[in-house]
């Protein structure tokens, strides 16, 4: 398909879907070609996944309520999907880009995502969701700026930098996938990257005396990281779409899949300084550096890079508890964030989710409430829409840990639209975990060591906790969240440790409304790809 034809298709899809989006909100168009290419992130040649020849991929720049029309052409030799970490896809899980909602884009074909960043601000990222593609790249940053009429609780920065950091393996993604498929655990990562490059491979240039916004995401596969800048403090201003209480930090723990925005003022003598990322909670501490370069620098970096925390859990837990919501600041709308009194809402349901690492049929698997997820032959959203029996069953995962032996199942949990759920993630293992829920933002009301019990609610923060879409659970600990079930659809609940996710530590939450109304959920897209048992069905007539 030529560029002109592709562009025409994109415009046609945009026009055809105008009934599903607010026509008064701006449109932004992207044409992306996904290819393999040689990359050298740790100095050795690897086969990476590039978008328009770039690793990492292009940045998405948007404003609250923008419509994003992203035409993705798959030039790989295998199926491909992109997902949008933190973009809530309001009423529109059809665009979520995971196999539970979307058929993969076949090799040599394209698919046009039609997203709206409805009522959102903040810093996020996109990534390839199938197989182990994420280990080859294909990720990039997403920036959602506030509308010009909405006040932001800090002066406009002089610049805005996206920092995509995380662990990296020197083996190609196909080799890593083969290790997992054989029933073994991954080896330790070989290094860390900042924006696709190893130590001192990336430079951020600033002017002395000015303040800059850094949007930092952990896009790695298996490891929490700590982020710090030599000689500089960081003022936290945003956590995954929530304006935070503006605390100052010398270093910041960022767990898998998480994103933060900090303000950094170039208030030191004019020279270069280390930006450092190091691993957390690992037996061998890996680190990498980039350079903060003053434009009038009189010298290069000097001294050793600053050290950071390594295995200290209590330090990280206390920092996590210090993250608070800015109650007086506006979010994507003009009303103050504190006007939503989440702590006064009665919960309609409690769901306890306990992780485990069972051996099933002689192979390493990972599970939630004893269920290790297996991919169906048809996306769950399509099976639900076309009423195809035998793909999944409601209630195939329980609300509470069963204590029984682990088993394989395509696990789907039902939930009522407009409910207000308490979810408790319980981690009886010795490794820190990170959990993400698509389509929603939730309030992190509590986290602590030991076993959760009903009396733990007495320690919940019911006034000003942060709301976000990805949260950590410390070893032998629990984390509790409150979540409004305000988005109809089929939503992935997953471990952000990509080996665990791949080997079953995930399930789908089916938020259901009996109304069958466009008010609650958009209809199936006219250009929806069909596969599995949905082949031969009709979407909607053009």
From TrEMBL:
Q: Which GO terms describe its molecular function?
A: copper ion binding; oxidoreductase activity
A Pfam family this chain is assigned to: Cu-oxidase_3
Where does the record place the Plastocyanin-like domain?
Answer: 34-147, 160-297, 377-514
Keywords (alphabetical) are:
Glycoprotein
Q: Which family does it belong to?
A: Belongs to the multicopper oxidase family.
Q: What is this protein called?
A: L-ascorbate oxidase homolog
- Organism equals Prunus persica (Peach)
């Amino acid at each position: 398909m030529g560029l002109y034809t592709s562009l025409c298709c994109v415009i046609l899809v945009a026009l055809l879907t105008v009934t599903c989006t607010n026509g008064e909100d701006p449109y932004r168009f992207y044409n992306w070609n996904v290819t393999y290419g040689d990359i050298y992130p740790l100095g050795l040649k690897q086969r990476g996944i590039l978008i328009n020849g770039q690793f990492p991929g292009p940045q998405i720049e948007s404003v609250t309520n923008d419509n994003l029309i992203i035409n993705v052409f798959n030039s790989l030799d295998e199926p491909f999907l992109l997902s949008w970490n933190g973009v809530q896809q309001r009423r529109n899980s059809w665009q979520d880009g995971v196999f539970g909602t979307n058929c993969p884009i076949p090799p040599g074909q394209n698919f046009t995502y039609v997203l709206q960043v409805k009522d959102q601000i903040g810093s996020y990222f996109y990534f390839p969701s199938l197989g182990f593609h994420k280990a080859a790249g294909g990720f990039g940053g997403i920036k959602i700026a506030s509308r010009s009429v909405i006040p932001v609780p800090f002066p406009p920065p002089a610049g805005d930098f996206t920092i995509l950091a995380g662990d990296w393996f020197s083996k190609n993604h196909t080799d890593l996938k083969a290790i997992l498929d054989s029933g073994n655990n991954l080896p330790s990562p070989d290094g860390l990257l900042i924006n696709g490059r190893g130590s001192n491979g990336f430079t951020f240039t600033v002017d002395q005396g000015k303040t800059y916004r850094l949007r930092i995401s952990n896009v790695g596969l298996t490891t929490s990281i700590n982020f710090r800048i030599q000689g500089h403090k960081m003022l936290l201003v945003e956590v995954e779409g929530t304006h935070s209480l503006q605390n100052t930090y010398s270093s910041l723990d960022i767990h898998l899949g998480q994103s933060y925005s900090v303000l950094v003022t170039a208030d030191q003598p004019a020279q270069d300084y280390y930006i450092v990322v190091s691993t957390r909670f690992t037996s061998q501490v890996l680190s990498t550096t980039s350079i903060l370069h003053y434009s009038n620098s009189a010298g290069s970096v000097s001294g050793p890079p600053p050290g950071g925390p390594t295995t200290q859990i209590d330090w990280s837990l206390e920092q996590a508890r210090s993250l608070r919501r800015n109650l007086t600041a506006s979010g994507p709308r003009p009303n103050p964030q504190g006007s939503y009194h989440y702590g006064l809402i009665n919960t309609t349901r409690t769901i306890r989710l306990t992780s485990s690492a069972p051996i099933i049929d002689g192979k390493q698997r990972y599970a939630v409430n004893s269920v290790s997820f297996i991919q169906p032959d048809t996306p769950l959203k399509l099976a639900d829409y076309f009423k195809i029996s035998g793909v999944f069953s409601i209630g195939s995962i329980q609300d509470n840990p069963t204590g029984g032996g682990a088993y394989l199942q395509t696990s789907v949990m039902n939930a009522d639209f407009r409910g207000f759920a308490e979810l408790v993630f319980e981690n009886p293992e010795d490794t820190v975990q990170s959990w993400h829920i698509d389509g929603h933002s939730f309030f992190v009301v509590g986290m602590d060591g030991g076993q959760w019990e009903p009396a733990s609610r007495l320690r919940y923060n019911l006034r000003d906790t942060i709301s976000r879409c990805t949260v950590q659970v410390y070893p032998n600990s629990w984390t509790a969240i409150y979540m409004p079930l305000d988005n109809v659809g089929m939503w992935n609940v997953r471990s952000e440790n990509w080996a665990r996710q791949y080997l079953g530590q995930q399930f789908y939450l089916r938020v259901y409304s009996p109304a069958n109304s466009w008010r609650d959920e958009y209809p199936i897209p006219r250009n929806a790809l069909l596969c599995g048992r949905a082949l031969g069905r009709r979407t909607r007539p053009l």
